[in-house]
Design goal:
The protein is mainly α and 547 residues long. It has 25 helices and 8 strands.
Length: 547
């Protein structure tokens, strides 16, 4: 195959993958809580014209920095408010993270290892899923991973001084973007990795070679303007953002998450599928030392993986997506192992593992349906069932194909397993739209959106549906329910109705009004003979208006 033909093949393959990666973004309804929340904040930015102070349901919301809000608001401005534009930033950063992993790993080790790393990352279940969900974790993970790779590229023994400086500056810019994505972890975790690597390698000059003063200056130039501006406009911002959302989130259970220390072990095992069989060998590959090189990129990547995993394991606040930043580095380490396997013409252990997962899945799906019947969700899971069967079959077929290909065509085996896993992950997430009937306010909001006059009060009584405001295209007044809006309510209490009695008074006084409420609250207010006309409902929500 000529060089030109090979390039055309790579470009065509990339275009096909891009279509597959981005093509499903509009299919699913936005679900609560994250997808609704991170669509609504940018929508309110566009409507209000205030891109400085993030607001959720009209209330100040300082839990996270604004980069993703700005990106999504820009997408809304350019292309309109859609489900795919709400998810575009996650998908774009996830896709770019794969491309950067390919390029960086190929440069650090060899091109074949780079392509394998890209295949591993794109097909890893957690990266695949989060890349198609509107949440903040993909953006910060992509920037952090790119920064770690850029730092490694800057420290290569064969890098020229100018090349090293460019990559080093690029790493600091990426860290600034990570900080603007999700806060101080964007600098704290990479800094700790640098120190730990220097200690392990006894390379004390390593810290100086990353040019910390130049880098911190560059980082502050990018991040400080928003922090200063939002602090001037909102004096309460600094304490809430830095103390409550960083120190207290890490050190206390202020967010009421009580997962055990080992919480991320099964998350990692499931999230790295179908490459679980190569996880430990990949980590072992990170210990290898090339005596001919001063800088050991595989060891730096290993330090990053272990540090981030341990950091979030000891934290008192845990969510499954928190360890996502380690996946590109982990993909590179797994690729180092798989590259050695391909040269030895051995069967790939991941193939048998994948086939086993698929086989177990085929027997497990009916059990899920049976369990769902006891949870009164049988109808939803029956809609989901064909997608789960498809995912299991893809795992099984991909594993079997990879097993038989591995001895003579090891790279084809890796490709077959990666493709099967990618499509399996897509089946899992596309089928999850079945849960949109209960986890999204899409249907009820669209049923009434054209009926609600723009200036009529609209109340959220005893509930807060994160996606309702986005689909309704307006904010609501909270009644007797604060949830994560508590901070904003304390700043602007006039926008809140504290109890049902006060709501009843406001309802009677208003010439016209609408309200969303849980089914049980509707029953209680109906029993109190509050004048209401039911407009629409689903299994969780009732929409009413004043007669």
């Amino acid at each position: 195959m000529t060089q030109t033909l090979r390039c055309r093949y790579v470009v065509l393959l990339g275009l096909i993958f891009a279509v597959l990666w981005f093509g499903s973004l509009e299919y699913r309804r936005l679900i609560d809580p994250d997808e609704g929340r991170y669509a609504e904040i940018p929508r309110e930015m566009v409507v209000s014209g205030d891109w400085l102070t993030p607001r959720l349901n009209g209330l100040k919301y300082f839990e996270k920095p604004p980069l993703q809000y700005w990106a999504t608001a820009t997408a809304f401005t350019l292309f309109g408010e859609h489900q795919w534009t709400a998810r575009l930033w996650s998908a774009l950063t996830g896709f770019c993270g794969i491309l950067f992993t390919i390029a960086a790993t190929g440069r650090l080790f060899n091109p074949t290892t780079g392509w394998i790393a890209g295949a591993v990352l794109a097909s890893s279940l957690l990266w695949n899923l989060i890349g198609h969900i509107n949440t903040l974790d993909m953006g910060v993970s992509a920037f952090l991973a790119a920064a770690v790779f850029a730092l490694c590229l800057a420290q290569r023994d064969d890098a020229t001084p100018a090349e090293s400086r460019r990559w080093q500056d690029g790493a600091w810019v990426l860290l600034a973007l990570a900080t603007l994505s999700k806060g101080l972890i964007g600098i704290v975790l990479p800094a700790a990795t640098v120190v730990l690597y220097a200690v392990w390698q006894r390379d004390w000059g390593f810290i100086a070679r990353i040019r910390p003063w130049r880098g911190l200056t560059l980082l502050l130039v990018i991040t400080a303007p928003w922090v200063i501006a939002v602090s001037i406009a909102n004096p309460e911002f600094a304490h809430f953002f830095f103390i409550h959302e960083h120190l207290q989130r890490f050190l206390t259970k202020v967010h009421h998450r009580y997962e055990p220390m080992w919480y991320f072990i099964p998350i990692l095992m499931i999230g790295i599928m179908p490459w679980l069989g190569s996880l430990l060998p990949g980590l072992k590959a990170g210990f290898a030392r090339n005596v001919s090189q001063r800088f050991q990129p595989q060891r730096f990547l290993l330090v990053w993986v272990v540090l981030v995993f341990v950091f979030f394991s000891v934290s008192d606040s845990k969510l499954a997506s928190y360890i996502l930043p380690i996946f590109p580095a982990l993909a590179a380490l797994i690729a180092l192992h798989l590259g050695r396997v391909t040269t030895k013409q051995r069967h790939i252990g991941d193939a048998l593992f994948s086939a086993g997962v698929g086989l177990v899945g085929l027997f497990f799906v009916p059990l899920v349906i049976h369990r769902a019947a006891t949870l009164e969700m049988e109808s939803i899971y029956r809609i989901y069932q064909p997608w789960l069967y498809a995912a299991a079959i893809l795992f099984l077929v991909g594993g079997v194909a990879a097993f038989f290909l591995a001895r003579k065509y090891p790279l084809s085996a890796i490709g077959a397993l990666a493709a099967a896993s990618f499509f399996s992950g897509q089946a899992i997430i596309l089928g999850h739209d079945a849960f949109g009937a209960v986890n999204s306010a899409h249907d009820v909001a669209l049923n009434i959106r054209s009926q609600v006059p723009p200036n009529v009060p609209f109340y959220s009584v005893n509930t807060y549906d994160q996606s309702f405001q986005f689909y309704l295209q307006r904010t609501t007044t909270m009644v007797d329910y604060k949830d994560e809006l508590g901070f904003g309510i304390r700043q602007e209490p006039q926008k809140f109705i504290p109890d049902i009695n006060s709501f009843v008074i406001a309802w009677h006084q208003a010439p016209a009004a609408w309200a969303l409420m849980p089914v049980d609250t509707w029953g209680q207010l109906t029993a109190q003979k509050l004048p209401m006309i039911e407009v629409t409902r689903d299994s969780r929500r009732v929409i009413v208006r004043k007669p």
